[in-house]
Amino acid sequence: MRNPLSPASAAPLENDDLLTEILLRLPPQPSSLPRASSVCKRWRRLVSDPGFVRHFRIHHRRNPPLLGFFRGLNFIPTMDPTNRVPYGCFSLQLDRWRGDDQWFNTLGCRHGLLLIFLPKRPQLLVWDPITSDQHPIATPPDFAQLVWDGGGPVHGTVLRAAGGVHHFQFQVVMVFTVEQQLNVRAVVQVYSSETGTWGNPISTPLPPQESSSTILFPNEWVPEVQVGNSLYWLLGKSNILEFDLDRQRLAVIPLPVAVHMYAESNCEFLVMRADGGGLGCLVMSEFSAQLWKRKTDCDGVASWVLGRTIELDKLLSLNTETRGPVKIIGFAEENSVVLLKTDFYRFTIQLQSLQFNKFFDSNRGWSYHPFESIYPAVTLNGGGHDGAEVLDKI
After folding, report:
1. What are the tens digits of pLDDT across the range 46-100?
2. How deeply is 11 buried, as exposed, middle or buried, from its count of CB atoms within 10 A (0-12, 13-18, 19+)?
3. What is the pTM of this model?
4. Contact indicator for 251, 204 with CB cutoff of 8 Å
5. How does DSSP classify residue 239?
């Protein structure tokens, strides 16, 4: 039995292993490790170790902060000044991949990875902005032919492998439509970095009201959402397309009946994670937002239940000049943050706390991809961290 007065018991923080476990539980904000490194040389040595940084990212992989948004390949930080990642911190030179091709499309961002589509090659590129890892992928043959033939919309997403953030292993899921006689089918193909191959196409017929590829994904800038181990896309304004990653199966889920009344109006729709987990849906008409949740009863029958209604005009501090029509242009699923826009401003709303943040962006483009990741920054000189002076990253 250990003597309670022994040095190991009297000074537990002198034990590097124990101190490391404590430091791993610091908040996952960009300022956490720089602040810890400024305490003393010993703390700096521990938090600067690459092994510690890998474990820090793994420990917080389920609760990453929202660092900002990618508009194309330009990163727009949105955190407070203490934690703000500097503009230009994440940079990718596409000349290596695209040659003379000046056209690319950022398809999505998840688990700290960006998926970029180079149509003229045709090729996909998976990029980790934190580590600068890059992985080019040839598109599946059917998908490439569809693009050249002017087929349906191009959609895709990337998911990091469950093993953790220190291995650059991932899956890419591409979804598109093909016309067969008078019918349209949704098709999914999955790429695994572990095998380096694409799986077989998986397809399902679309309902008659969704049979036109022009309305398949009505808002191409709002990406799919991952709930559990399934991906969901808004399908027109009447249904949701579900892809079960475990069962490798596609299905069509109807939206709430009450939502259909908005189908022909100028409303905004978003498939999202519901409060407390599960599949949800946000319907926004002007400045009123309804949050719906899909529930399954004891008999296995699924139905939609209306949860909260948020009156945005009472929440947002927008003056008359900037009120305009509000559009949904993004959703950060790990932080339950919706990105909205008017003609002049972009702003975010955290759906649980209703915290509202406004930021200005002179570019009026629509394509914003939330970047939720762990940024393990440390200062070179061992001093403090003010957010704008991130001098090094591991």
Report:
1. 999 988 988 898 889 888 999 999 988 888 888 888 898 887 788 887 666 555 4
2. exposed
3. 0.83
4. yes
5. E
- Beta bridge partner(s), residue 283: 269, 290
Closest to 73 in 3D by CA, of 119, 124, 109, 101: 109
Measured CA angle at 160 (ends 142, 49), to 5 deg: 145
Which sign, positive or negative, has the C-alpha torsion 377, 381, 382, 388? negative
Look at the block and give the residue holding tokens 């953790």: 164
* Distance separating alpha carbons of residues 139 and 257, to the nearest angstrom: 37
Cβ burial 201-219 (10 Å sphere, 16+ → b, else e): bbbeebeeebbebeebbee
Beta pairing class for 368-372 and 74-77: unpaired
Pairing mode of beta strands 230-235, 113-118: unpaired
282 with 272: CB under 8 angstroms? yes
Dihedral (CA of 379, 384, 385, 388) sign:
negative
